[in-house]
Amino acid sequence: MPVLLHPATVHFPIALLIFASASALLYLHWRPLAELKTLTWWTLFPGWLSLPVAIISGILAQGGLPPDAPYRGMLNLHITTGLLLLIVYGDLLYRRWLHRSGRGRKRRLGRSTPEEQGPTVDFLDQPGRKWLLTLQLLVGVLLVVASGYLGGELVYTWGVNVQG
Fold this sequence. Notes:
Blueprint lengths: L1 H8 L1 H19 L4 H29 L9 H30 L28 H27 L8
């Protein structure tokens, strides 16, 4: 059963994370439209939540494979890229959460709560973070592409976990 579950779950993080990254990059470098910001955050979180499902189902699916298989190095790299995706996009969501909760920004003198500090600037609009966010989003997209490529090589070149 885990063999069949992995191919069914990998498409959600692929589509959602690439879409979220593209929306954020368009927001940062093309037009700062509110719709793009909304699309970024509303697809990034479910994309990140679907990653552990894909990772766990993949780890379970590879449990029955021979440990000395010639594709084992590629499989390990595929697993590594999946775990790195969890970290890269998880970090982005975590830093946004810190920013929104007030823990990530300096408090103004004489004001102690985030509500008293006035309106909050969205995480994508923080001054001086545009290029760091761009780099993180591009690394994320490259990891999605690399993981997908490696997964495709495992299936279509090596026939890993192909039924029939």
